[in-house]
Amino acid sequence: MQIDDLYYKVISKLPDANRIHYCESLIYRTQKDVLDTKCPITRRKLKRLLKAAKSEMKKL
Of 1, 13, 38, 51, which is least surrounded by CB within 10 A? Predict the structure, then answer.
C-alpha cells in the first residue's frame, strides 16, 4: 500500500490480476526512469518506489 497514491486509493481494491499487472508496469517504468535520471534525490525516490513495487509483487 505504500507504493503510490493511485495504488492505495484505486488499484488496491481491484482483483489480484489487475494489481499484479499494475505492479509489473510500474516496475518496468521505474527501472527505465532510474536509468534516465541524473538527479541523485530523484533516483533515491525512484529506487524506494521500485523496492515497494517489488515487495508488493511478492505479497501477491
Answer: 38
